[in-house]
Design a protein that fits this description.
Oligomer: single chain
Structural class: alpha/beta
Helix content: 25-40%
Strand content: 5-15%
Mean pLDDT: 95
Radius of gyration: 25 Å
Number of strands: 18
Number of helices: 18
């Protein structure tokens, strides 16, 4: 009979103990009840707590609150499962279970593989290679799926969950209104409901001790009464800007108005000290209430080329005004006795580092690199010599954002050198880019190389702007992401055999080879718009690729029999994996049918085929919604199929 003794008294350790009990009883169904006790002096059974309570050395961590060290020393009867902080104790429990054969391959109960076996002696000690490891909400967001996503996060070694916006109603709207899915009736939700749901998410994040990163965009709108709750929805009404706020809105082309009708994309006149004070006071009031926030992200407006052009604002570049705002925010937070950590972002027009203004108190701040316009067919180069990378000069509202991720890193290094702050990355692998690799294998390799490459270039981790349903045709890329962030030394081959063997059983190589074949025959670069045979005919015109696409269709047809013969497997998660794969075969054929027409220059036929595919495949979204995000997929592929090349005689969207 096992006993779990909590050495440290903390609600996260309480949850860790319950998780250990749950999975031990699943692994050993006849082990009997497992008692959980608070017993700080216990010397037997499982002992859970922070390392300092065991007298264990944590000197390898620069900050034991932020750096996750896992320490496991157990035998058949129990032993020490510890971490540098309470979150790390939970991570250590999941690592102990992983070493003993458990796997979490997708969010939700059906994503678990829990073997029936006795536990074995386990010895493990490691500090995570990256401090920042997590995800941020994006895409079509449903509350029940958010609960599964938060629960899944620490199970694969991640430590951060971020929720963008004061009220993330936009993301919930696109799910509950079922945008891009004509097979489902809209189910509108109110802003009040979504705010309550955000608080529920925060409670679940706190239960697990995860770092909670909050906000992002919105600070340039809400303080002035510009309503950004509806996200990127446009509003051209006369009262969209309150009369007393118009003087603070960024002036562009001589006018102070919403940028293309979108509050979230509208900046403010940052040279105006009164405007800056309004923003600072709003942020301070928010921070004073949001004491559960570990990192508060203070970004400028979304979009680009949307900054104030008044004479005063022209005296400095955007990033100098941005740092001025950060210094004033620091002063105000300090005066209120608030220790809130602030994240500012190298993104869009703030990609260019400041030239004249420096941070007064770097200890409060972290830099986030958001390489929003990067090319996902080329990974981060390790150990870059940025002196060999040519960067353009800043031009107010006339910048050309980089396409190369390595140029972005060079910009971030200039920021780091100037401000002397730690940095991490806001990435988009699991935003629309994931849908450009039909086989998913090339995309997983890019994720793997990027995580390692960013670390080698001084960025201490990644937070993905991603759909919480990025598990189609499987969760391999996400598994690679979480595992590599924790341990940069793990090989891609090791991760491949681990994930696929657990997800698909003994015949896993057949599945991997099939997906690799699709990735090979359907060039990742094509849906990224890089393989045009004749640019004048459009970014996706390339008749030479048609035969390769048709070959991929044949590969799918040949593979259908194999999948059907594996629809019922020994483990539930494997049955689920093959059933997802079965739907994926239909998905690939539907996309390829439209791609063949598009590559052959048959624009209208391609569009009609694509639209019919969306309507047809949408009927599976309820079945697949834990793994597949039809809305976000459509945002990726709409730009391919709904943007008709003018050379075809039709108007572009």
């Amino acid at each position: 009979m096992f006993v779990i003794n909590k050495i440290t008294s903390n609600h996260v350790v309480d949850f860790a103990a319950e998780e250990l009990k749950k999975y031990l009883r699943m692994m050993m169904p006849f082990c009997g009840e497992i008692d959980i006790k608070y017993s700080p002096c216990a010397t037997d059974g499982f002992r859970l707590g922070i390392m300092s309570d065991f007298g264990l050395d944590t000197s390898e961590a620069d900050d034991v609150e932020l750096d996750d060290i896992i320490h496991i020393d157990t035998d058949e009867n129990g032993g020490i499962i510890a971490g540098s902080n309470v979150r790390s104790v939970l991570l250590a429990v999941y690592r102990f279970l992983t070493i003993n054969g458990c796997r979490w391959l997708y969010p939700g109960v059906d994503g678990e593989l829990i073997p029936v076996r006795d536990i074995e002696p386990t010895s493990y000690h490691k500090m995570a290679d990256c401090r920042y490891r997590g995800q941020c909400n994006e895409g079509a967001e449903a509350q029940h799926l958010m609960m599964d996503a938060i629960d899944f996060t620490p199970k694969i070694g991640m430590n951060i969950f971020m929720i963008e916006f004061e009220n993330p109603k936009f993301y919930y709207d696109v799910y509950y209104n079922h945008n891009e899915n004509n097979t489902r009736e809209p189910e509108p939700v109110s802003a009040e409901t979504v705010l309550q749901w955000k608080r529920l998410c925060e409670a679940e994040i706190s239960k697990r001790g995860l770092q909670f990163h909050d906000m992002g965009h919105g600070w340039t709108a809400e303080p002035f009464g510009l309503v950004s709750t509806d996200g990127w929805t446009t509003n051209f009404s006369e009262d969209a800007i309150p009369d007393n706020s118009r003087q603070y809105v960024a002036m562009i082309d001589g006018k102070r108005e919403l940028f293309y009708g979108t509050a979230l994309n509208t900046n403010f006149c940052m040279s105006n000290p009164e405007a800056r004070k309004i923003v600072v006071d709003y942020i301070v009031d928010y921070a004073a209430l949001a004491t559960n926030v570990d990192y508060l992200h203070v970004w400028l407006a979304d979009g680009f080329s949307n900054h104030c052009e008044c004479d005063s604002c022209r005296e400095k570049i955007v990033s100098d005004w941005y740092v001025t705002l950060m210094n004033e925010l620091d002063d105000a937070l300090t005066s209120k006795g608030l220790t809130t950590r602030i994240v500012f972002i190298c993104y869009s027009d703030s990609t260019w580092a400041p030239k004249t203004v420096k941070l007064k108190n770097p200890e409060r701040f972290s830099l986030l690199l958001g390489a929003i316009t990067r090319d996902y067919t080329e990974p981060v180069a390790p150990n870059l010599d940025i002196g060999n990378i040519e960067l353009s000069e800043f031009e107010l509202n006339r910048n050309r954002l980089p396409r190369s991720v390595n140029q972005y890193i060079a910009h971030a290094r200039e920021w780091m050198d100037w401000c002397k702050v730690p940095s991490f990355v806001y990435e988009y692998h699991f935003y629309v880019a994931q849908y450009c690799d039909l086989g998913s294998i090339d995309a997983a390799r890019i994720v793997y190389e990027d995580v390692k490459g960013y670390k080698s270039n001084g960025c201490d981790g990644v937070v993905e702007d991603c759909s919480q349903r990025s598990f189609f045709p499987n969760g391999f890329s996400f598994f690679v992401y979480g595992q590599t962030l924790f341990d940069n030394s793990v090989s891609l081959d090791e991760l491949t055999s681990d994930y696929f063997s657990h997800a698909y059983g003994d015949d896993w190589r057949e599945v991997y080879n099939f997906l690799a074949s699709i990735s090979n025959d359907v060039d990742f670069g094509y849906l990224n718009g890089k393989r045009s045979f004749n640019v004048g005919r459009g970014a996706y015109y390339n008749p030479e690729l048609v035969e390769s696409f048709k070959k991929a269709v044949e590969t799918v047809n040949e593979f259908e029999g194999f999948v059907r013969s594996h629809m019922n497997m020994p483990y539930r998660v494997q049955t689920v994996s093959y059933r997802i794969l079965n739907r994926f075969l239909e998905y690939v054929k539907g996309i390829l049918e439209a791609m063949i027409l598009k590559a052959d220059g048959k624009e209208t036929e391609a569009l009609n085929t694509y639209n019919a595919f969306l309507d047809s495949f949408g009927r599976y979204e309820t079945e697949l919604e834990l793994y597949y995000d039809q809305y976000l997929m459509s945002q990726s592929l709409n730009r391919v199929f709904r943007r008709i090349n003018s050379a075809s005689g039709l108007n572009a969207d």
